[in-house]
Amino acid sequence: MSEPRIVPVDGETALQEWRHVHNVIVPPAALSLDEVRERAGRYRLRNAYEGDVLVGCSTVRPPQGEDAVATVIARVLPGHRGRGYGTALYADGLAHARALGARAVETCVLAVNEDGLRFARARGFVETDRYVLDGAAGEWVDLRLEGPGTAGATIPSILREPGVG
C-alpha cells in the first residue's frame, strides 16, 4: 500500500465526499450537506484517497478549554480498512492538533464500530464515557489520549515531535 493522498476539503465535490464517508461510518448521526458546510467553517476536514479512490476522511476540532483538548477523528470506509489509511489519517490529525497547541486529544466512536474502537484503543485511547444522544439511536464512546503533564496516557511521539506532518 502506498501512502494515501490526504487533502483539505475544498469545494462542493470534496464536501459531498467527506459527507459520504461520515454518513457511511456513523449513520445515526448522518449529516446534510449544509451541516457539513457549517462544520467545515469550524473544524479542519480532510479526505483521503488511494489514487482517485476515496478511502476515508478526518475531522480535527481545535483545542478547547484550559486543558487544550483537541478532537481527532479518522474514518475509513469498511472496504479499505486494514491497509494503513486510518493510521495515516490519524497521524495527520495528531500533527495538526499538536500544531494548534493540543495537550490532550479525544476521539468519539460509534459503539457498534468495533474496528474503530479497536483502532483507537491500539493507539492508547482510553474510554471515558458512553452515552446515547437525546432522541437518537446508537451508543457513542468517548475516548481520551492525554499528554505529558496531565493524568492518563501519553500522547504518542508523533504529537510531541516538531516537524511531523
Provide a quick synopsis of the model.
Helices cover 32% and strands 32% of the residues.
SSE inventory with pairings:
Elements: E1 5-8, H1 12-25, H2 33-42, E2 44-50, E3 53-64, E4 69-76, H3 85-99, E5 104-110, H4 114-122, E6 126-132, E7 139-146, H5 157-160
Parallel strand pairs: 4-5
Antiparallel strand pairs: 1-2, 2-3, 3-4, 5-7, 6-7
Helix pairs in contact: 1-2
What do these coordinates show?
- The chain starts with a strand and ends in a 5-residue tail after the last helix.
- About 30% of the residues lie in helices and about 30% in strands.
- It has helices at about 10-25, 35-40, 85-100, 115-120, 155-160, and strands at about 5-10, 45-50, 55-65, 70-75, 105-110, 125-130, 140-145.
- By secondary structure, the protein is of the alpha+beta class.
What's the SSE pattern? Answer: EHHEEEHEHEEH
Strand order within the widest beta sheet: 1-2-3-4-5-7-6
User: Uncertain segments of ≥5 residues (pLDDT<50)?
Assistant: 148-165
Estimated helix fraction: 25-40%
Q: Which secondary-structure class do the elements indicate? A: alpha+beta
Q: State the separation between the terminal residues, measured CA to CA.
A: 19 Å
**What's the gyration radius in Å?**
15 Å
The count of helical stretches stands at: 5
Mean pLDDT: 88
User: In this structure, how is the largest beta sheet organized?
Assistant: 7 strands, mixed
Silhouette: globular
Number of strands: 7
State which percent range the strand residues make up: 25-35%
